[in-house]
Amino acid sequence: MRVIRAPQQMGQAVDRLRARGQRIGVVPTMGALHEGHCSLIRRAARECDAVIVTIFVNPLQFGPREDFRRYPRPLATDLRLAASAGATLAFVPPAASVFPPGFQTRIAVGRLGAIWEGKVRPGHFTGVATVVSILFNLTRPHRAYFGQKDFQQAVIIKKMAKDLDMAIDVVICPTIRENDGLAMSSRNFYLNKDERKAATIINKCLTQTTELIKSGIIDIESIRRFMKEKLSEEPLITEIQYASMYSPQTLDELERAGKEALLAIALKIGKTRLIDNMIVNP
Ligand code: PAJ
User: Fold this and answer.
1) What Cα–Cα distance (Å) separates residue 14 from each residue in 88, 136, 197, 250?
2) Which of 59, 274, 53, 68 is nearest to 175 (CA)?
3) What does the pLDDT look like over 13-71, one tens digit per residue?
4) Does the model's pTM come out above 0.90?
5) Could you say which of 58, 84, 173, 240 would form a disulfide bridge with 131 (CB–CB 3.0 to 4.6 Å)?
6) CB of residue 44 inside a 6 A radius of ligand 1
7) CB 55 within 8 A of CB 78
8) How many whole angstroms from 16 Cα to the centroid of ligand 1?
C-alpha cells in the first residue's frame, strides 16, 4: 500500500489508474480504524481494482465544544490495518492542503442536514459534505463506501452525489458490532469500564423495539414510549438526544411502521456521545 500526502500526487496516481481503466473505490475515514472501517475497505477491495482509504480528521465537522483535539490519531496502526484489509493507497493529506488559507466554500445540505444529528450538531453535515466532496474531487472514485452506522451521513452523501451529478456510486454497508452488540466506533475508546458496559443498552433497545414492531405494535407513541422506558433503565445515560422511528428515505418520524422503518438513537453516556440505528422490516 502506497501512502500519499500531497493532493497533487494523489491526482497523478488517480490519472494513472484511470488511464489503465481501473475501477477506483474510496473509503473516507477519520482514522482510528476498527473492524467497521476495515469491513468497508474489504468490500471495496472485492468490488474495485484500486482502493483508496482517506484518513483525515476534518476540523469542519466538529462543533466548538466537540472532541476535535482529542480525537484519536494512531496513524501507524491505521496504515497497517488499511493495508491488511486490502487498501492499495492511503491518502493522508495535511490539513493546510485540504483547507488552505482563504478557503471559504461550503456545501449546504438542506433539510436532511438540519434534522436528527443536525439539530444537536449544527453545521456538522455541511462540514461532512464539504470535505467529502473535496475528497471525491481529489480521488475521483467510481464507488464510495459508507457505513450504515452513520445512517444520516450516508443518506446525505448519496443525495449530494445525485443532486450534484457526481457520477459516483455511493454504497452503504452494514454496521459492524462488538460481540455484545455495541456498534463499533472510534468514540467507544472514550468509555470507561462501567460506561462501556452501560453502552450495550443501545443495541438491546434497538433489538427489543424491533421485536415489538414485529409483534404488531407499530404506532409511534407506543414505540417512542417503549424506547424511552428501556433506555431509562440505564442510570449512566446522562442525556437522550433522540430515540424514535423514522422513514429511512426522508428521515422524518413515521406515524406507523410500514414496509420499512428505521429506529435511531443518539445519547450520551457520561460525556461520550453515541449513535446507533437499525432497519426493521415488519
Ligand atoms: P469515521 O467516523 O472515521 O467513519 C468512516 C466510515 O466508517 C463512515 O462511512 C462510517 O459510517 C463507517 N463506520 C464507522 N463505524 C462503523 C461500523 N461500526 N460499521 C460499519 N461502518 C462503520 O464518518 C466519518 O468518519 C466522517 O464523517 C467522514 C465521512 C470521513 C468525513 O470526514
Assistant:
1) 12, 11, 44, 35
2) 274
3) 999 999 999 999 999 999 999 999 999 999 999 999 999 999 999 999 999 999 999 99
4) yes
5) 58
6) no
7) yes
8) 28
